Amino acid sequence: MTGIDRYARVLNLFTVRNSSWTVQGISEQLDTAASTVYRTVRELVASGFLESTVDSHYRLGPTFLQFERIISATDPLVRSGAVFLETLVEHSGIPCSVVLARLHGEKVMCVAESRSHSFDVKTSYERGRPMPILKGATSRAILASLEARKRKKLLKKISAVENFDNNKLTEELDKIRKRSLCISQGEVDKGMVGLASPIRNKSMGIDASLSFILEQKHLNDVVQVRLVSLLSTHSRLIENYMDDAYKDIYQRSRSAVSY
């Protein structure tokens, strides 16, 4: 392992299911000498990316919490979630989850979520969990909103590992882009419906979407009209909010530099 890759490979082993590792366990998993792993782990501990626990185990460290605080305070899309999502849940009138997600590389990730108290269904779009770009309304709304060149480049990368009809997909994405709406049923989670509208901020390079996720049994024509209207108005509100937040953050950054 060399360069940044040796740190990334170790950190990527830590998951919800495997949140604690020993040096020996990492060594076996990565097929790397224990002495090399030990040096890497020691450096990660010194930087706060890992911390030691008991019985020679290690877990993710406090540096991630520091970064989380910074992201929550400065990322305009994440900040908008605290402002708008709870209100959207209340106005939906049904048990549901409202999700803000954005494109990160070739994956889509939920960055903010709010749920009805009565919505106790486990869904795949959990905050911080990478999701495929081709499945579900939340992801395809983002894909549809990308500039043609960026979308083409992304689909070319994905085609190396996934099979899909490019012409059919492009036609579908163009329709979604024209309507600013994508609806999917059971593509990600069985028995669930997703309704999503794209959100973009070109100056900040943010490609995102706002989604309602609910059980199919709660969706009817009246509910759909209400949710689509809420998505349409609030996706624009969030875009405007991000513009204002970006100006505020940029101004504060300039003020800090001037001192």
Keywords:
20% strand; 9 strands; three-stranded antiparallel sheet; Beta-Lactamase; Arc Repressor Mutant, subunit A; 9 helices; 2 domains
Overview of the structural elements:
The protein has 259 residues and is an alpha+beta fold. The chain has two domains: 3-61, Winged helix-like DNA-binding domain superfamily/Winged helix DNA-binding domain (Arc Repressor Mutant, subunit A, Orthogonal Bundle); 68-254, GAF domain (Beta-Lactamase, 2-Layer Sandwich), CATH 3.30.450. It contains nine helices and nine strands. It has helices spanning 3-11, 23-30, 34-46, 63-74, 76-92, 137-145, 148-158, 166-179, 221-258, and strands spanning 21-22, 50-52, 57-60, 97-104, 107-115, 130-132, 182-185, 192-201, 206-215. The protein has a six-stranded antiparallel beta sheet with strand order 6-5-4-9-8-7, with helices on both faces. Strands 1-3-2 form a three-stranded antiparallel beta sheet. Helix 2 (23-30) packs across helix 3. The protein is globular.
